[in-house]
Design brief:
- Belongs to the inositol monophosphatase superfamily.
- This is 3'(2'),5'-bisphosphate nucleotidase CysQ.
- Keywords: Magnesium, Metal-binding.
- It comes from Octadecabacter dasysiphoniae.
- The protein folds into 2 domains: 3-138, 2-Layer Sandwich (Fructose-1,6-Bisphosphatase, Chain A, domain 1), CATH 3.30.540.10; 147-252, D-Maltodextrin-Binding Protein, domain 2, CATH 3.40.190.80.
- The strands form 3 sheets. The chain has a 7-stranded mixed beta sheet, with helices on both faces. The protein has a 5-stranded mixed beta sheet with strand order 11-10-12-14-13.
- The chain has 254 residues and is α+β, with helices and mostly antiparallel strands.
- A hairpin with a 4-residue loop joins strand 7 (122-127) and strand 8 (132-134).
- The radius of gyration is 17 Å and the shape is globular.
- It contains 6 helices and 14 strands.
- The N and C termini lie far apart (45 Å).
- Helix content is 28%, strand content 29%.
Length: 254
């Protein structure tokens, strides 16, 4: 079984688990250090993904939001980078905009990835050098356009003037709670860009970075540098992902 096929099957199985908890009052805990909530659905999905994926690829390293990290993954050639449920707050609130985000990386770069939204039955997928799809149909990021007609997925704090070298560009800002879903929507060309201008956990963006790139866009850190994964401390310096307006956004940022 190819890596991408393995990820697609695992994501669908994860969706079956998560749907069983959705709108069913799952138990919720607050993580230490202000890291947000986690539900019993996150933990169940994580256990199943780890069991299935590690059984299929025992030589791959493992990095997941819901598994205690160690340095064993740093000694492997390939790694799984997983967010069992990206958008846990949306999941708790009954929104459909949460996703399973699953990537495989090699030499710091994603090589296969899926983002699956079970409640919308949207399967975004990509394999390096082979393009990106949504439910098996090819998807493409948008071409260049005037910044004042662009629509950007971003938290409100990212449009604070302190982040911008001059005036905040006059794009239209909108929002989705899942970073993975934001990246998928950019890859699909439904939005022109997404921004997150703070240290960003790898599991939130590893899969989406490949899907955007394979859709013809660019996914970089907030300075325009490469987004590299499987770091000893698994964070990158924010992310800017876009089609044709990527360079315009990077130039405008501090």
């Amino acid at each position: 079984m190819r890596d991408l096929e393995l990820l697609i099957n695992a994501a669908r199985d994860a969706g079956d688990i998560a749907r069983g908890y959705f709108n069913a009052s799952p138990e919720v805990w607050e993580k230490s250090g202000g890291q947000g909530p986690v539900t019993e659905a996150d933990l169940h999905v994580n256990r199943q993904l780890e069991a299935d994926l590690q059984a299929a690829r025992p030589d791959y390293g493992w990095l997941s939001e819901e598994t205690e990290d160690g340095d064993a993954r740093l000694k492997t050639e390939r790694q799984f980078i997983i967010d069992p449920i990206d958008g846990t707050r949306a999941f708790i609130e009954g929104s459909k905009d949460w996703a399973h985000s699953i990537a495989i990386t090699e030499n710091g770069k994603p090589v296969a990835a899926v983002i699956y939204l079970p409640m919308r039955d949207l399967m975004y997928a990509a394999e390096i050098g082979k393009g990106a799809t949504c439910n098996n149909d090819p998807i493409f990021a948008t071409n260049d356009k005037p910044i004042d007609t662009a629509t950007v997925l971003s938290n409100k704090p990212n449009v604070d003037p302190k982040h911008w070298a001059g005036a905040v560009p006059p794009f239209k800002r909108t929002f989705r709670s899942s970073l993975a879903y934001r990246l998928a929507l950019v890859a699909q060309g439904r939005f022109d860009a997404m921004l997150t201008l703070r240290p960003t956990w790898e599991w939130d963006v590893a899969a989406g970075a490949l899907i955007v790139t394979e859709a013809g866009g660019i996914a970089s850190d907030q300075k325009g540098g490469p987004a590299l994964f499987n770091n000893p401390h698994p964070q990158i310096n924010g992310m800017v992902a876009a089609g044709g307006i990527h360079s315009t956004l990077i130039t405008a940022l501090v």
